[in-house]
Structure formats: structure tokens, C-alpha cells
Amino acid sequence: MKNTKSSSRFADDAPADPPADPPADPPLPAPTAPIQRQRARILIVDDTPVNIQILAQALTKEYDIAVATGGAAALELLRQPDKPDLILLDIMMPEMDGHEVCRRIKKDPATWDIPIIFLTAKGTVEDQQTGFNLGAVDYITKPIEIPVVLARVSVHIRLKRKSDQLEKLAMLDGLTDIANRRALDEMLPRECLRAARDGVPLAVLMIDIDHFKSFNDHYGHGVGDECLRRVAQSIEAVLQRPGDFVARYGGEEFCVILPNCDSAGALQVAENLRSAVAALDIPHAYSNVARQVTISIGISARQVTGQEICPPVIQQEADAALYRAKSEGRNRVVVREEGA
Ligand SMILES: [Mg+2]
């Protein structure tokens, strides 16, 4: 994916007067991130401990195993952030049977995409149909044949990995490897909702690279792309808390979401971002702001209410603050004023 044109929304982002002796393209090292491969996680749910033991023993060499001896315990485990990649689910259990557990897992947006394989002594066509209708991907009949379990588990783990990968790619910006606009459009309403529910402030930062159009025009798109990558990475490196989020909004714009963060905290983060990008020291001889690439940031940080989630008003406010940062001279942070 190329950044073939600058889509600056800032009309006055015209190139500054070029210096008499234009500098050569700055050399930019291309950092690479290693792809980490983790062991897949399997949740085994069965009310008979010996069944759990047999399955866990067979699977533990290749997979990380979690176990639950009942439906309620399984659902509780699934509320943890570390979700399994596959669930082996017994049907016949006291209190809550496997069908009911499956129904609840498939109804929850946080767990619906985890594949479920039913384990059962019941093997009639109707039973299997019920299971598939509830959203199970496969069926294993007891007594358990270990090679069959291993083969089926391996197939479904592979498929799950593939679909996770596709899902992730669809949410990634191809140029910078950070989240894309689509991911942001999913994340922001969710964070607004959460902030409204928890009664905590939410901060949104809109970020734009100053005079990027002239940077691109003078140094070329290859150097422009590299600049976008490095700015994206330095933003990502500044964000410290696990819930903090950055996406490429488009062109040379980025959007940061800081959950549970007030305007003082957001201002601190924004100033850190501005320093981090300046410290990259990417030469920009065609900017009238500084000798290197700089960014402007607009912030809106406040309590949100349930009504303003779609469209996210807070993002529009951050955007308006960014416009002010631009018109007031760039390379600066502007916090939206209350009631503005
Ligand atoms: Mg049972």
C-alpha cells in the first residue's frame, strides 16, 4: 500500500519556501517487528474429572490447557481477557448442560467466534444436528479416541488461526502496521460506551503531521511512507497503558484513544508524543515550523454520555481542537475548552 497522495484536510498546508540548497533524502532505517507465535489455548469443559485428565494429558504437549468442571465455571473463565482458541465441551453436565453453555458462548460478542467441539456419549443424528445448529464446529463421541481428538483439534485450531489472521489483517493499516480507520470505527463507540457506563473520562487525540504534503512532494513518496511508519511507531511506543489505542486515521493523520484519562493526563501524553516525534529528527527542510518533522495534536477529554456515541462527538471535538492547533502555528497541542 502506497501513500500516493497526501490527503491533508488542512487547506493552508502549502509548502514553505524551499531553501536554496535542498538537502538529500534523509536515510531512514527500516525497523522490523518479529512475528510471535504463541501456543494455542484449549478450554476443556467436562463434569467427569477423569475425562478432563485423559484429554488434558493428550493435548498438553502441543497446547495450553484450561479446564472447567461445569458450565458456570466455564463461562466465568471465558470472562477473563485471555480467551481460548478452542473449546471442548461435554454435553451431559448437571445444572447447565453443554447445549446451554454453547448457546451463551455464541450469544456473547466477546466469545461467539471461539470454535466449540462437543464431546458426548450421545451420538444420534438429532443430537449432532442440535449441536451444529447451536454453532458447534464439530462433534466427538465418547469413549474418546485420542488420535481422533488430536486430528480434529488440530484442524479446527488451524482454521481458527487463519480466521484470526484475516480478522487482524482487515483491521491493520498496510503501510504503518498499526490499526486502521475501520478498527478505530469499531473501537471508539465501544470505548465511549465503556466510559459512559463506568463514569470515567475518555480522551481522544487527533494528530496530524505538519506540512506533510510538502515533505512528500520534495522527498518523494518512499521517504514519505517511511516517515509515516516511523511516526506511527513512535506514537505506539509512547502509549504505555494496555488499553491505549492508536490508529492511522488516513493520510498523515492519526487518532489516539486514552480510556479513563482526563485532560491533564491527555495533555501530558500529547506533549510526550510531540517530543517523541521531534526526537526522531527526520529532516524536513520544507517546513516553516521546525527543521524536522513535527506534529500537531487536538485533544478532547471528558465524561461522555450514552447519547453521544454514534457519531462519536468527542472525536469531532478533538478534530476541531486539531484545526486550532494548525491555525495557531502547528507543532503544538490544543485541548478543547469546556463548552467549545
Ligand atoms: Mg458429562
From TrEMBL:
UniProt feature, compositional bias: Pro residues: 16-32
Domain called Response regulatory: residue spans: 41-157
UniProt-listed Enzyme Commission number(s): 2.7.7.65
Domain of life: Bacteria
Residues that span the membrane, as ranges: none
GO CC list: plasma membrane
Cross-referenced Pfam families: GGDEF, Response_reg
Cofactor: Mg(2+)
Example GO biological process: negative regulation of bacterial-type flagellum-dependent cell motility
Keywords, in A-Z order: Phosphoprotein
Alphabetical list of Gene3D superfamilies matching this protein: 3.30.70.270, 3.40.50.2300
Domain GGDEF: 200-338
Enzyme class label: transferase
The reaction(s) this protein catalyses: 2 GTP = 3',3'-c-di-GMP + 2 diphosphate
4-aspartylphosphate: modified positions: D90
Region of interest (Disordered), ranges: 1-32
Molecular-function annotations in GO: diguanylate cyclase activity
NCBIfam families linked: GGDEF (TIGR00254)
Protein name: diguanylate cyclase
Organism expressing this protein natively: Thiorhodovibrio frisius
Higher taxonomy: Bacteria, Pseudomonadati, Pseudomonadota, Gammaproteobacteria, Chromatiales
